[in-house]
Amino acid sequence: MRYDSLKQLCIMRVLPSILGLLLVLSAMAAMAGEGVVSHGETVAGATEQLRIFGKVRNPHGVGVDDAEIRVLFNGRELKAVVHGHVAHGQGGISTARDGSYQAVFRLPEGELERGVLEVEAYKPSYARIKVQVPLEDISRGPAGISVGTDLEIKRHMGPAFWISTVVFVLAYILISFELLHRTLAAMLGASVMLVISYTVGTFFPEYHILTYESAIRAIDMNVIFLLMGMMIIVGILKHTGVFQWCAYKCYQLARGNVVVLAIILMSFTAVASAFLDNVTTMLLLTPVSIEIALSLGISPIALLIPEILASNIGGTATLIGDPPNIMIGSYAGLTFIDFVKNLAPVCVASMIFLFVFTKLVYGREYKKAHVTDIKAHIAKLREEYQITDSTLLAVGLIIMSIVIGMFLTHGILHMEVSIAALFGAALLFTYGLLTGKVDLLELIEKDIEWTTLLFFMFLFILVGAVEEAGLLDIIADWVRQLSHGNLVASICLILWVSAIMSAFVDNIPFTATMLPIVGYLTTVIPGAESGVLWWALAFGACFGGNGTMIGASANVVTLGIAESAGYPIRFFGFMKVAFPFMLASVAIANVWLLFMY
């Protein structure tokens, strides 16, 4: 009985009280929704909508992404009630990738004209800026109040700048002087920057270098997929014996004349490097060249160094011939035809000079050659270097022709070159698997150079980090000031600085560093819109790689194989021959650029 009375009491008295309390809380929440939200406070009464939008740029006019935006009214921060398509930062609003921002607030009706409206922008490695919105910038309409406010934030060399710069330089040293494997060095540098950003940078924003999303965006997948596709195609074709057969044909054409043989080998190397990766070309030709040199009784170095020089010259002629060109083309949106038209003539002139240069340097060595029976020697090479799979070779050449055709027309088709490379690789790979001519695991494990692809990915993150921190902006300003905005001075400066730097450090990380710098200078220097600075960078990075044995990847690969075969060459021994040729080829490029543009 007591239980029933207690139950009835709860239903009749307690439950209505709880329901009434909930109704009161709901009404208060509804009233709060009609007011201004500022640091959690509510403003009662009639309100009007305030929409603020704009763009945050750096001093170069480039939009700044992930900048934190704060809107203040009478010194108090407003909290947005409606957001546009932009991301949410720690402060509530952050800029999109192009630097734009948009948000909607609510203010008491008529209060805007009686107060002070300010917009503040901040990002690590930039100075905080706050501007007052003039009344004349405020417009009213049926949808409410609209305010468009653009801000320019300047670089600030804070902790994030110095940390990223030091890490980048240390990684650069490790890569250039091979103190650590280049892939591991790049991965170490990239991971250190990200860890600092998400540990110390979480509590102290001035230590935040870059976000994970920014790191992923920095990776140019067009470059990665292009290299992967070409690695697969070349990896399958090399099993046909075509490269060894080509070396034999070169000797057959020379008919025992070593000078002619060297010219033919250099020409073949240059042409092959223009359409294949020059590292792959030298990897395949080096063992064959060593064997031919030994059969002639001359030093293999006398053939290998001219081939190295030719590979870097030939690789300069096309979009896909050398990694720096791939990076430049992808960044600047240049086509295969653009590269051929602007670079190939200089490459042809440089090759002609290389023929003369090689005769002068190695003429005495070539005279030491002795082959008593040329016909017998040719017959021996014919027997040893044969096409091992003509069917696979025929299919591969057809597919390679399709891929090159797509390269030539990708500007018309508006298709990235990586799509053509992956398409050709997929077709040839599928044919090889269906016919049993290709071993899946062997191709994946041995022919695709995963360490190279990973190196590129981590390198892009490294460069993206120093770009975020402002190092590249400072370098760009320095180059612009040094050239005084003069096009001729800029061409010469970019060409020669790129050449000298690429001779002593790997031209891949140097090119990645220079891309945004040249991109900026192209937009601000009168006459540079023709793209001439891109060609200056391409010539400098590719030709400069000939200067020393560590200047380009093809140099390192070739000389490493020669050393393994018992024919080492010293750093200065290579430089004594290669550096003068590098200077001459860059001078030829300089004359071409100044004459044509």
Major pleated sheet? 6 strands, mixed
Number of domains: 3
**How many runs of DSSP E, i.e. beta strands?**
11
SS summary, helix count? 23
Summarize the amount of helix as a percent range: 55-70%
Assign the structural class, choosing from mainly alpha, mainly beta, alpha/beta, alpha+beta, or little secondary structure: alpha+beta
Mean pLDDT: 84
Kindly estimate the percentage of residues that lie in beta strands according to DSSP. 5-15%
C-alpha geometry? elongated
- The whole-angstrom Rg is 32 Å
Enumerate the spans where pLDDT stays under 50 for 5 or more consecutive residues: 27-44, 83-91
Task: Give the tags.
alpha+beta, single chain, 5-stranded antiparallel sheet, 597 residues, 64% helix, Protocatechuate 3,4-Dioxygenase, subunit A, 11 strands
3D structure, described in words:
This protein has 23 helices and eleven strands. It is α+β, with helices and mostly antiparallel strands and 597 residues long. The protein folds into three domains: 47-152, Aromatic compound dioxygenase (Protocatechuate 3,4-Dioxygenase, subunit A), CATH 2.60.130; 163-212; 222-472 and 486-596, no CATH class. Strands 1, 4, 6, 9, 10 and 11 form a six-stranded mixed beta sheet that branches. Strands 2, 3, 5, 7 and 8 form a five-stranded antiparallel beta sheet that branches. A hairpin with a 6-residue loop joins β7 and β8. α6 (221-237) crosses α16 (440-447).
